[in-house]
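Components:
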Amino acid sequence: MTSREKILSQVRQNKPVAVPLPENISFATVTAPERLPAFVKSFTGAGGVVGIVSDLASIGRELQVLFDKPERVMNTLPAIGYGLAPDEAIAQGHVLANLEVAVVLGSLGVAENGAIWVSAENIPTRVLPFICEHLVLVLPQSQIVGTMHEAYAVLPKSFPDYGVFIAGPSRTADIEQSLVIGAHGPKRAHVFILEKE
Amino acid sequence: MHNEYIIPTDHATAAEVFLQDEERANWHDKALWFIREKRDVATKQIPDWELLRETASQIKQNVLGNLDNYLEMFEQNALQNGIKVHWAADAAEHNQIVLNIIQQHGIQKLVKSKSMLTEECHLNDYLLENGIDVIDTDLGERVVQLAKEPPSHIVLPCIHKRKEEVGELFHIHLGTEKGASDPAYLTEAARQHLREKFLTSDLAITGVNFAIAETGGFVVCTNEGNADMGAHLAKVHIACMGIEKIIPKAENLGVFLRLLARSATGQPITTYSSHFHRPAKGQEMHLVLVDNGRSVQLGLKDFYNSLKCIRCGACINTCPVYRRSGGHSYHYAISGPIGAILAPNMDMRKNADLPFASTLCGSCTNVCPVKIDIHNQLYKWRQVLGEEGYVPATKKQSMKAMGSLLSNPTLYRIAGKSGRTMMRLLPGLANNKALNPWAKQRDMPAPPKESFRDWYLKNKKQHD
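Structure:
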């Protein structure tokens, strides 16, 4: 008998009585007018910075102020008009080892916790939002939902090959519970919320 | 790097050693209580907290009752996604599977993010014996790895270490300045040290927080970003999970991700919740499903609930015994109350002391996000261990004596009276730390002149 068969038969033999899976439970949500302020509070609470802009071009202008040299920036959103565009998928994320800034589209935001969904479909290589020193996310305001329940209701059932909720810069408190921002991932996280699409 | 830390044999003895450093023990107690308080604040911000806990517990109940079906569904979908699925009946087989994959690729060095399962299986030691260099990349895990110790807490692996000790370790191993102990400085040094490892490792091992039967994908949660740095920069990604980590549907993540970080650290969500469904182009993705005693625990009516655990550590942070005895006292990969109910299933003889490392106050049960009745299980394990003959004779005899005393009112009154007299005449005896272990860290109160019963009878007469 293979281990697979052994495990499955033992589980079959020992499993407790099944109960139905809870479904369609309604949880309290964040109302539409409260979503933006709640999202801002959550994301800044996690050590991130929030800017609210009216169009993609104004993000370009803001980036110019933050990072004076465009060659420091890898920008995956051409309409922003600032920084270097990755030509195609990057086969080896290692080439980004010294990358300072990455600009990435977030396709969904969650008000209750400030998490932003980044899909592999929108980045040239999976490591991009982790390996940069400073992560800049762009999030349409219309894509902010109230809770995680709503987020999973909106995300496609056939998940992208890889996707991640990112809620601020990387962090650790492993040494004496002292919070340090900037563990292995970005030391700073910035989100620009687009008022219009 | 082997764990050279010698673990004292039973919890009480080990706790005594931990408590010798009073300043550290007090700090440890406060640091964990601080996290418990952060958890409380976070949970109060959710109007549906209790509904979430109940729902999570029911989802897990559904999982355990259908675990074979969900495992098969998960396997089928994961295979379709291009993930290679392996089954391991026990720790040895798990380790062997992982080593085989490593050797097939001719790899000598790998990075690993946090996985309590690999701790349970002692994977690091096994790989080291086979000439493979394993680098733990979670900051706390790297600290204990350099110290040649096991983690003392499932979420905060080096909570037992002071920053000066981390500074000294980093000075020796990473070349930081002698005497430097600033957490920000030390974290930056670890970041640079580990970044080099991420960039030069062809294989990464991660744990799994949730595996979704319906979609054949899995979710890994970190704050540091180390699981992602490792997995995305490696050619081969191996994810290791216990079979109980399955959830039926992606929408169930809405429930669990709302509970996990709030319960663990008081954050509304971990910084990264990564959803792996298919390997990247040119990458190989493996997933190892491990039983290692879980299918046996599943059949124990009083104990299978423990398999609902999502490894948040809330029960550990709140436990008055854990906070004042330290994680290493539990001599099992998972410390604290949850470890104490999981460990006896693995080895009853070796872990017979752990269900006694509790006051049965029930705080663990109150904070558990999936409503495991932890303190009841601790109590029930004591019964099982007693019946199986794993309770020390002295404890058994004193329990028996106490039992007959408490069930006989006359005997109880005589004992109470003679106790009060003795404490008045010979107070030194009751406070003698060698004779009375209860007096080790405390002074006995002054004995009352009369018992409540005497007082009641007297006053009742006056009022009648």
